[in-house]
Write a structure and sequence with these properties.
10 helices, Nucleoside Triphosphate Pyrophosphohydrolase, two-stranded antiparallel ribbon
């Protein structure tokens, strides 16, 4: 896969993107279910507050020394302060992780907030590192997902807040700082082992999903996020230190594309809805087994147009970058509903 150097994507439509990112008006979908009338109120409820520091004790400079492994899952839900956004991804306040993930009749889709999804690959084998979320997780326990999924937070020692200009130029250092923090927390990857400049930001996805598969039809929990997709490679898995935190991760696995497809087809396994969406929408090209893929790869090693097909191209060109569009998706049918009876938005 070549080296680990990263070429920053060039934004193709700065004027158009600036208009999108500077707008403060919220996107309100047309209603076909009665509960959709509540969508416009998601980000105006009383729990959306002025940004406040996250987790543990302040150092006196309105930032915080994040406690990491010192806290329980419940404490994380109460103390972590996520970035609340409108549907154009403009930050409009903050909320606790708990309140932003609560699905209820008055808040059927939770509170829209910023998130990130990291996909970490072994460049020597083209394998992706998956994690199985711990059974003790409050939201989406026991599901397989991409390497790391979490949230940038307000008030951190190293800022995790990105403005419109950071999105336009693809740098998003705040989101990447949050990714490094959580990779250390969840997977025990030491700080400094992965560099901020090695992450490649590709695009953003707005999705929602009620956690009905693990918490039942009237689940009080769910996700509603604008998710920043980050790719990164390491030379080999042997060059990476991975020591998963038991309260966060039950298992890990390095998989090829064909192995992941086999896992998707295994009805005994659960997957996060965001991971399945991203993997099938963008990551995979031709769904073939490893030998067929290798035979069809050709001289450049690519077997299709998926991001996973040619990691060197994905990481070192702007071919797959889209900083202007926020791609919006409803979940599969099994993740609709919840305590607020949430239905399709898009």
């Amino acid at each position: 896969m070549g080296g680990r150097s990263i070429t920053r994507c060039v934004f193709r439509s700065t004027a158009a993107a600036a208009a999108v990112l500077s707008s403060s008006s919220a996107f309100v979908p047309s209603a076909s279910r009665s509960n959709r009338q509540n969508y416009g109120n998601i980000v105006s409820r009383s729990m959306v507050a002025t940004p406040t520091p996250s987790t543990a004790q302040s150092n006196g400079n309105n930032t915080t020394a994040w406690a990491g492994k010192a806290l329980s899952q419940t404490e994380f839900m109460e103390r972590d302060t996520v970035l609340v956004t409108d549907t154009n991804d403009a930050i409009i306040g903050s909320a606790s992780k708990r309140s932003s993930h609560e699905f209820s009749p008055s808040q059927p889709y939770g509170i829209l907030h910023r998130a990130f999804s990291v996909f970490l690959f072994d460049a020597s084998t083209n394998e992706l590192l998956l994690q199985k979320r711990a059974s003790t997780k409050i939201t989406f326990p026991n599901v397989w997902t991409n390497t790391c999924c979490s949230h940038p937070l307000h008030g951190m020692d190293i800022s995790e807040v990105d403005g419109p200009e950071d999105i336009l130029d693809g740098s998003v250092l705040g989101v990447k700082n949050g990714a490094i923090r959580k990779l250390e927390h969840e997977l025990g990857i030491p700080l400094g082992e992965l560099k901020v400049e090695e992450f490649k930001f590709l695009t953003r996805v707005q999705y929602w999903a009620a956690d009905t598969v693990t918490h039942g039809e009237k689940s009080p929990w769910g996700e509603h996020e604008i998710d920043y997709i980050l790719f990164i490679t390491v030379p080999s898995k042997e060059s990476l230190t991975v020591k998963p935190h038991g309260d966060e991760v039950d298992d890990i696995s390095w998989v090829t594309q064909s192995q992941l497809l086999e896992m998707f087809n295994d009805k005994t396994l659960l997957f996060s809805p965001w991971f399945r969406l991203i993997a099938k929408k963008w990551m995979m090209g031709n769904p073939k087994n490893d030998n067929e893929a290798k035979n069809d790869a050709g001289e450049n090693g690519a077997i299709g147009t998926g991001w996973w097909e040619d990691l060197d191209r994905t990481l070192n060109t702007d071919d797959f970058c889209d900083y202007e569009t926020i791609h919006r998706f409803d979940p599969p049918e099994e993740h609709m509903g919840g305590a607020g009876d949430a239905g399709p938005l898009y």
